[in-house]
Design brief:
Elements lengths: L1 E4 L6 H8 L6 E5 L2 E5 L5 E5 L4 E7 L2 H11 L5 E9 L2 E9 L13 H7 L1 H14 L5 H6 L1 H16 L15 E3 L4 E4 L3 E9 L10 E7 L2 E9 L4 E8 L1 H6 L5 E4 L1 E4 L6 H13 L5 E8 L9 E8 L9 E2 L8 E7 H10 L5 H19 L5
Parallel strand pairs: 1-7, 12-17
Antiparallel strand pairs: 1-5, 2-5, 3-4, 6-7, 8-10, 9-10, 10-11, 12-13, 12-15, 13-14, 13-19, 16-17, 18-19
Helix pairs in contact: 1-4, 4-6, 9-10
Protein name: ADP-ribose pyrophosphatase
Function: Acts on ADP-mannose and ADP-glucose as well as ADP-ribose. Prevents glycogen biosynthesis. The reaction catalyzed by this enzyme is a limiting step of the gluconeogenic process.
GO molecular function: ADP-ribose diphosphatase activity; ADP-sugar diphosphatase activity; metal ion binding
Length: 372
């Protein structure tokens, strides 16, 4: 079957990962159409215009099934259209968007997309490549925002500084995986992988089989009122303590939420503080960033203090109905929060670390000029 590709799948790296192998084609034109830009830089085909540049590929069997799995669950449908290639007109299948783009949508351009979203989409396609044969396409599409969030976390990790004043400064080949991980799950993923690594004695470890929860980057915020030395804590029921068998799974935590793909850590912190605590106009101060459980999870948390007026926020009920969040805010003195750490009522490690940081640094925060 001839398939005309006009959007992101013209990118050879993305196309190969989605198709499962390199997929070459011929330059072609789709007459009487144009491509406009939709949400998240997505290309939307529309009738009208002088014609669309694209790629004509031969696709069938598993390759076509994989391409369909990448497009159809998002509402795209294949339809027959005439395409012009090498001076002749041929009949080809093309993926049509679920709805035509708005009239004021700007033209879509491959180079612009490659600069704005190409690295993230290519990275997300790695998980698609691993998962497409093991997970229903509809489930993969339903959790696509998490696929992209995990991809964004990997890109962020690869770009972060890695100081090694005390710890090992490893060579690029210090850890060697035995192949791509096996993934299970949906919203969160459990990865099973084999690997070997350099040892402190100068040798190489045996093959290690490990299972790791593949999470995301998250922004954590501890609101603090410098006028009253009070902090805002969030209470909610948590499944982790429940499954462990805790008699009381309601947990006290900081404001927290996932850093969405394409979102800065600071923007996520501000968004989550408004959603969960009803606080706006806050001043963020970065505390630290950390792996809460590096032996079993890829989760990476960015912790902030938020200077704010908390006088009207005790008992605030927050969270998004769309995410079935049921949250209650508590505004209490910092000293009492530290007492709750001692009694064990505060048992969430990130909150404990953030409270201890605040106890140590609140005098500096109080002295900082507004807007700093």
């Amino acid at each position: 079957m001839l398939l005309f590709l006009y959007g992101t799948l013209r990118d050879p790296v993305l196309r190969a990962r989605v198709a499962g192998r390199p997929l070459d084609g011929r330059a072609a034109i789709l007459p009487g159409h144009e491509v406009r830009t939709g949400a998240e830089h997505l290309p939307l085909l529309a009738e009208g215009g002088s014609g669309v540049e694209g790629l004509l590929v031969e696709a069938g069997g598993e390759v076509l099934a994989r391409l369909d799995a990448y497009e159809v669950p998002f509402g795209y449908v294949r339809a027959e259209r005439p395409a012009r290639v090498d001076g002749e007109v041929v009949s080809a299948q093309v993926y049509l968007p679920p709805a035509p783009p708005p009239d004021d949508a700007p033209p879509w351009d491959l180079a612009t997309w490659e600069a704005a979203d190409g690295p993230l989409s290519r990275e997300a396609a790695k998980e698609f490549d691993i998962s497409v044969c093991a997970m229903p396409a509809e489930a993969l599409a339903r959790n696509w925002h998490m696929v992209r969030a995990r991809a964004a976390a990997r890109l962020a990790a690869s770009a972060e500084a890695a100081p090694a004043e005390l710890r090992t400064d490893p060579a690029p080949d210090a850890v060697v995986p035995g192949g791509p991980p096996e993934l299970a799950g949906g919203f969160f993923r459990l990865a099973r992988l084999d690997l070997r690594h350099r040892t402190f004695s100068g040798g190489t470890s045996p093959v290690l089989s490990r299972e790791v929860l593949v999470g995301v980057d998250a922004a954590l915020v501890l609101p603090w009122d410098p006028a009253t030395d009070r902090v805002l804590l969030i209470e909610q029921m948590r499944v982790g303590p429940f499954l462990r068998g805790a008699s009381n799974p309601w947990t006290l935590e900081p404001v927290a939420g996932i850093v969405d793909a394409g979102e800065s850590v600071e923007a996520a912190a501000l968004r989550e503080t408004a959603e969960e605590a009803g606080l706006t106009g806050i001043r963020l101060t970065r505390m630290f960033a950390f792996y809460p459980s590096p032996g079993s999870s890829t989760d990476y948390f960015h912790a902030f203090a938020a200077t704010a007026d908390l006088s009207a926020h005790d008992g605030h009920l927050g969270g998004l109905d769309s995410e079935a969040e049921d949250l209650r805010a508590h505004v209490i003195p910092l000293a009492r929060a530290l007492d709750l750490v001692d009694t064990g009522e505060i048992s969430a490690g990130p909150l404990i670390a953030m409270l201890l940081w605040l106890e140590r640094n609140r005098h500096r925060l109080r002295a900082a000029p507004a807007g700093s």
